[in-house]
Amino acid sequence: MGIVNSTESPLDEKAIVAAAERALSEIALVRAEVGKVIFGQESVVERTLLAVLSGGHALLVGVPGLAKTKLVTTLGTVLGLDSSRIQFTPDLMPSDILGTEVMDQDENGRRSFRFVHGPIFTQLLMADEINRASPRTQSALLQAMQEYHVTVAGQRNNLPQPFHVLATQNPLEQEGTYPLPEAQLDRFLMQVDVDYPELAAERRILLETTGLNESEARAVIDAAKLQEIQHLIRLMPVSETVVEAILALVRSARPGHGNAATDKNVAWGPGPRAGQAMMLCARARALYDGRLAPSIDDVVALAEPVLQHRMALTFAARAEGMSVRDVIAGLVKSLRA
After folding, report:
1. Residue 185, domain member (yes or no)
2. Measured between alpha carbons, how far is residue 215 from residues 46, 78, 197, 210, 267 in Å?
């Protein structure tokens, strides 16, 4: 079985194992601390953490009241990141996110412009109810999410490192919302669907969040340690088998690439960025589970969160009641065959 290494300078095997052991203990601390505040929702917590550990952004989708905002706030605290929150509303303007230039005047009467940083200049940005703002305002995040800097009045302004956007979104059927542009959706490493909690978790929520004392999370790592883990993930080797599985899955999701079901039901499919996201997230999931290399099981587990927001069905497929999840399930089944 061939191994595909990262283009980063390789570490020796003992150093990687030692770094992985440290990362595992730190990830375990993060999981335990988040578990004090967020009850149940293990899959949601895992996928959101995987997006951050991979160095990317995540879109959390679910109806109101499922602790999406609380999860993002908790992660900011536990990971020791500087964080800020933007509540997206229909009247929000791009300058409310990026910042604006103001005119200063000194004692001699000389005037000059000074850039005042907006809330995007942070390490963890919570974009709350992102689909309540207009597409023009949503697109203010595009450059930042991909290039990690923003351009205002022709001047480049670098964002802090690390930089992550965790956005929450209500389902598009809710009133007063705007669909996110496809180009912006593609910037999110994963779409994390947040469902209702199971009975035991909901019982715990009732008992532990309605009294006088509520559990509070604390920081267990900091930005520097998070960046070390992100660097380690990019160093992890990936077998040729897993690379081929990722390529087969992503390419089979595109119309015109030999999959009859996709040709019939999919209007447009994922681009190369989906494969990049899968490579990073598969490595992160392996480390999260205590393994030093990803497997095809990681690709299968991540297929839905990585691909679903990067695909659109044809009108005929939607009319038949088909969903993107159904299409991805079929592709995964073909991958396992």
Report:
1. yes
2. 20, 13, 18, 11, 46
161 backbone dihedrals φ, ψ, rounded to 5°:
-115, 140
Is 2 contained in some domain? no
From first to last of its 337 residues, the chain has per-residue pLDDT tens of 455 555 444 557 788 788 888 898 899 999 989 988 888 888 899 999 999 999 999 999 988 878 888 899 999 999 999 999 999 988 898 889 988 878 777 777 787 777 888 899 999 999 998 888 888 888 888 888 888 988 887 788 889 999 999 999 887 666 667 778 888 888 999 999 988 888 888 888 888 777 777 778 888 899 999 999 999 999 888 999 999 999 999 999 998 887 888 888 888 889 999 999 999 999 999 999 988 889 999 999 999 999 999 998 989 888 988 889 999 999 998 877 6
Judge if 55 and 201 occupy the same domain. yes
Burial of 33 (0-12, 13-18, 19+ CB in 10 A): buried
Last residue within a domain, chosen from 181, 202, 235: 235
Residue type, 307: L
Last residue of one domain, picked from the residues 235, 266, 291: 235
Q: How many domains does the chain have?
A: 2
Prior bond of 162 cis (ω within 30°): yes
Query: Which residues form the domain of 249?
Result: 237-337
CB 251 within 8 A of CB 106: no
What is the side-by-side strand order in the sheet with 164-169? 83-87, 124-128, 164-169, 58-61, 190-193
pTM recorded for the entire structure: 0.87
Distance CA 250, CA 331 (A): 9
The residue assigned the tokens 């989906």 is 274
